[in-house]
Amino acid sequence: MTDVQVGLSGIAGLLALIALRVPIAIAMIAVGAAGLTVLIGFGPTTGLLRSLPYEFAANWALSSLPTFLVMGYVAYHAQLTQGLFRAAKLWLSALPGGLAIATVFGAAAFSALSGSSVACAAAMGKIAVPEMRRNGYSVRLATGTVAAAGTLGPLIPPSILMILYGIFIQQSISKLFLAGLAVGLMTAAAYVVTIVLWATLHPAAAPRLVEKASRAERLAALRETAPSIVLVVLVFGGLFSGLFTASEAGALGAALAVAMGFLRRSLDWKTLRLALEESLSTTCVILLIAIGANLLVRFLAVSGTDQAISEWVIAVDPSRLGFFAIITVLYMVLGMFLEPVGIMLLTIPILYPVLVSLDINLIWFGAILVKFLEIGMLTPPVGLNVFVIRSVVGDMADTWTIFKGVAPFIVADMFVIGATMAWPDLVLFFVRLVE
């Protein structure tokens, strides 16, 4: 058996383990270790297993991962984002589907503090779905909007997926954040258009609000968003202006979120401990998956499988259009069964040589990749955001109803994907402003 055949056998074994519901981190570590043992021997492999986890985890760029997680969890538990939906509701309620549009804007603002699709969907679901139902909105529109709006979390910075991608591909995290922001804003705009069309074609699904908010009420609602706005401006203003690095931005954001929570008396020591525990747990899970992916990268590189797959893909269709068609199918299928971090770290080692061969902008691809991964959060049978909303709303809606509710938003997502592929400059607009 040649080295490439060993590598391909390892990939087949990895897919089999994933199909058997083995955690993806364990599956990648097992396959990587077994493959390297076959190729280079037991002794060198055990030496690599001793050194690789520390070498990877000691990467200074990774320090931004737990700090941004702390900022997001503290902002969530301290209810620093509580006024975002109320402000959006009062200012946008006159539009067709105004409450649903307010949900999208509220989710976009929440995303600037959280970076988590699941957290964004859960937070907005608790607030927005009951409000929309109280005002006569259909269950499909209410739940579908919130589930879809949650996918803005990893697109609008801070994004844990962008941080991991930047570390693996060795690209600027700040530039990736800016590219993600562009795609996030395009997605939000596409969702708003979808809601307006839905409300216009089916007025009964989104009744117009009769009550009118006064100017004083609207201004008061805006003042409630001040903590969130100050936090976002200080953290990301400093990051994008080059005043400090991503790691420093995360640390500042976490410290400010804790300070604001205590000053507003919406955060106590018990809640802070809960936020820290959740941040620690999430960090450990992500690092374990990342270490497994790193080991898999070594295995594929030693076997030459990554280069062989790259040559095969280019031989099948050497054009960019052909490659885009392949990755669209790949990520849509994987997104039906796996979670985003696992998909990204599983596919990057295989796709990277192809990206380099086709001279594809890696910042642009990072933003598109995260967009694909977030579509997977909506597609059956394992659409995590759908199941989060199902748990939040209880008996208000069944899972199939929510999946039907997100279907129009998935169509909108595909239009966004098409636009970003046809006009890459849309994604890189903010990046080029700071270059």
Number of strands: 0
What level of helicity do the residues show? over 70%
Relative strand content: under 5%
Biggest sheet, in brief? none
Q: What is the arithmetic mean of pLDDT?
A: 84
User: Based on CA inertia axes, which overall geometry fits?
Assistant: globular
User: Number of helical segments?
Assistant: 21
Helix/strand/pairing category: mainly alpha
Number of separate domains = 2
What is the terminal-to-terminal distance? Answer: 49 Å
In sequence order, what are the helices and strands, one letter per element? HHHHHHHHHHHHHHHHHHHHH
Radius of gyration: 22 Å
pLDDT < 50 runs, ≥5 residues: none
Explain this structure to me?
- There is one protein chain.
- The protein has helices spanning 3-19, 24-40, 42-57, 64-77, 82-92, 98-114, 117-134, 139-149, 160-169, 173-201, 215-224, 226-240, 246-263, 269-303, 305-316, 320-334, 340-357, 362-375, 384-393, 399-422, 425-434.
- It has 435 residues and is mostly helical.
- The protein has two domains: 1-58 and 285-303, no CATH class; 59-267 and 304-434, no CATH class.
- 49% of the residues are buried.
Short characterization:
It contains 21 helices and no strands. The protein has helices spanning 3-19, 24-40, 42-57, 64-77, 82-92, 98-114, 117-134, 139-149, 160-169, 173-201, 215-224, 226-240, 246-263, 269-303, 305-316, 320-334, 340-357, 362-375, 384-393, 399-422, 425-434.
How is this fold's topology laid out?
Blueprint: H1 3-19, H2 24-40, H3 42-57, H4 64-77, H5 82-92, H6 98-114, H7 117-134, H8 139-149, H9 160-169, H10 173-201, H11 215-224, H12 226-240, H13 246-263, H14 269-303, H15 305-316, H16 320-334, H17 340-357, H18 362-375, H19 384-393, H20 399-422, H21 425-434
